[in-house]
Amino acid sequence: MSHDMIRRRREHNLLLISRIFDVRQRASPFTVILDSLEQSGRPLVRTFIQQANANKARVVFLSFETIEKARGVSELVKAYAGRDGPTELHRKITTHLSKTEDTLLVIDSLNALAELLVPDSLAPFLSSLITPKTSLVGTFHTDIPPLPQATDVSGASCYAAPALTVLKYLSTTVLTSHCLLHVLAQKRARDRSLVEPTFGLAAGVEGVVVGLGANGRKALVVEMEYRRKSGRGVTEWFVMSTTTTATTATTTRSMRSKAASGGSGHREQRGIMLLEEYPPYRNSSVVHTGAVVDEREQLAVQMESTFSLELSEKQRRDREGVVLPYFDAQRAEGGAAEGGRILYEMGVEDDFDDEEDEI
After folding, report:
1. What percent of the chain is modeled with pLDDT above 90?
2. Cβ–Cβ under 8 Å, residues 119 and 76
3. Which of 67, 216, 328, 337 is 20 to 30 Å apart from 59, CA to CA?
4. What whole-number percentage of the chain has pLDDT above 70?
5. Number of neighbours of residue 175 by Cβ within 10 angstroms
6. Three-state secondary structure call for residue 137
7. Residue 237: phi, psi to the nearest 5?
8. Any alpha helices (H) in the chain, and if so which ranges?
């Protein structure tokens, strides 16, 4: 991949994820955040809320796990008590949605919502909440095992698709959070042709629930899968800082102006960068003029020897001036027929038998 193509992909994907966080851009009406015990998706939810506040949009928070109202939330709809049915819960949500004002609807646990609804009604319930002025962001915990699905009277829902499959099908963007330390450890293992380490529940060790280094305080890795209207998907991996408090409103405008002027805007994106450009991640490879040089090739080039393997200018001229024996034999001095004849001078140790050629 050439250097210009890498630069264009960087600018395009950084601008794309900035538009996904922007409620007014409406780049992603339904965004699903997949998190786990190894890395929570709350930093991504905070980024969506901060961006909505910067754009002066309303934030409605449907709470299944959150007890207190978070900063920047306009309305908190409590659903963790489990007293309301699907119809009553839908009525409470729609009363806070505006038809004229940009609104961000955040659901902190799509798992609890899927358990509350009949499997066949999950897609219609979520689709009814998305309007031209409302964007939906929901978090799905991949480590929570699904409960047995409820069925209707006819029993037709027993063949319904799992909730995660339905959510991936409906969503326009899927953001998966990964622990940065775990991603770096797996990258180092791949570079050394070793088995990638597993952490937490994936390790299968009795009594281990969360691996070491989980839920990093400074940064996390975000895997983005964006679906265009044409159906073509755009995937990219980012490193996102969790310590920055600045919103991405100014960043989005600066990225857009940079892209329009033809300049590089990746430095304007505060708190987020491509994973392949993160220094600890790319320490085993260097991008030079658009080509990726393997670490082993770098070591071979940089390796110092006790003697020089190169020829000096004088040695190169002397080598070119050497006339090898077969050069004279290939000359056609006596005519074309003599070209290629073998020249051999007898030595004192040679015992030539003339009778061998008389046969």
Report:
1. 36
2. no
3. 216
4. 74
5. 27
6. strand
7. -115, 135
8. 3-21, 42-54, 86-96, 110-116, 122-129, 163-170, 180-191, 249-261, 295-302, 313-321, 325-329
